Amino acid sequence: MAGLRLIVGLGNPGAEHARTRHNAGFRFVDVLAEQAGARFGLESKLFGETAKIEIDGRSLWLLKPATYMNLSGKSVTAALRYWKIEPEETLVAHDELDLAPGTARLKFDGGHGGQNGLRDTMQLLGHGRFHRLRIGIGHPGHKDRVTPWVLGRAGRDDEAAIERAIDDAIHVLPLAVAGDFNEAMKRLHTPT
Fold first, then answer.
1. Are 174 and 90 in contact (CB under 8 A)?
2. Which domains does the chain have, with CATH numbers?
3. Whole-model pTM over 0.85
4. What pLDDT tens digit does each residue of the chain (192 aa) get?
């Protein structure tokens, strides 16, 4: 399978959203950029912020859509067209209600599970054939509480667990970048 050329972090722009659960995807790519010593810059034609990093000698683009979550697909599809990258060479990192904080899972294809950034991206692509990194944020227990939950900040323990999950995912990322997704999944999904 082809390796990765683009990693998209989903989230909402603006300081008021910076540490919310919904911005787990932004936080993942922020950590990647920080570790690589890269800076994000606004790329208006791609409706987002971009940075370029290297992992094990491979160049990768990082993208943070500036469109707000519900319109993420506009930025993702613009970047794919502009850089001539296939959806299969893309990893989309996002918050996941159905996973507990501290859990991160890699996945290829599938539905959007109600995640609006995925929903919009899939609608514009016409399919879901791209890689996802699902970063667990837990569920508030009732669907009526989901919006304030995802737009709220995690408590101290959950916050630490989310950061740990991001670190775990970054640890296996070189395997995914090289195209060895099965090994990356095995290591990420198997408790040590």
1. no
2. 6-189 (3.40.50.1470)
3. yes
4. 679 999 999 999 999 999 999 999 999 999 999 999 999 999 999 999 999 999 999 999 999 999 999 999 999 999 999 999 999 999 999 999 999 999 999 999 999 999 999 999 999 999 999 999 999 999 999 999 999 999 999 999 999 999 999 999 999 999 999 999 999 999 999 976
Residue 155, Cβ density class (10 Å: 0-12 exposed, 13-18 middle, ≥19 buried): exposed
The rounded distance, in Å, linking the Cα atoms of 103 and 24 is 12
Query: Is there a contact between 11 and 17 (Cβ–Cβ < 8 Å)?
Result: yes
Distance CA 191, CA 108 (A): 20
- 22 labelled catalytic: yes
- Residue in 22, 127, 131, 142 annotated catalytic: 22
71-to-23, 80, 123, 183 alpha-carbon distances in Å: 14, 15, 10, 32
Burial (0-12, 13-18, 19+ Cβ within 10 Å), 129 = middle
